[in-house]
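Listing S7. Sequence submitted for prediction.
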Amino acid sequence: MQMDTLNLIILSQDKTSAARAFYLKMAIRKRWSKRKLERPFRGALFERVVLSPPKMSALPTHIHWRGVDTSDVKRMWFTAWEKQKLKLCKDDLLVCEGGDVGRSALWNDEIEGCYIQNPLNRVRARENADTRFLFYWLYFIKQIGYIDMICNKATIAHFTVEKVEATP
C-alpha cells in the first residue's frame, strides 16, 4: 500500500498529534498494510505502550517461604479493570496455585505498583485480622502434607481459590 494512503488513514483518526506521530512512525518502520494498521488502532497500542507503561507482575517462581524474590519480576500491561482487581497491597498473602502448591509469601510492598497473575492466589485479611497467621497456618498444613493431599498430586496439582477458601 502507498504511504500516502497510510498517512491519510493515520491522520484521519481522532487521535492526539502524539498518537498520530507514533502510528506514522510504526507504520513506516514495520511497513504495515492498511489491514495491519487497523489492528493497533483498535487495540489502542499507543495508549497501552506510551500512556500506560507496563507494570510489574509477580509470578509463582517469585514466591518462596522466606519471601518474594523481586530480582526478576517481569513487566506486562494491565487494563484499568485488571489494575483495580489485581494490585498487590502490603500484607497480602500470595499463594501458589500450581507447581509447589500452597507455597506462600507475604507481600511487603517490595515494589510499588505490582500486580498478580493467574497462577497466584491473593489472600487479603479481613479487618482486624493478620495475614501472618494465615501464612504460618499454610506453612504448617503444607509441611504435614494436607495441601498436597487435597490437591491430588497424582495429576497436575492445583491449589485453586476454592481450595484455599475451603482450607480449615
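Caption to Listing S7: primary sequence and predicted C-alpha cells for the chain studied. The longest helix spans residues 17-30. The chain has a mean pLDDT of 80.
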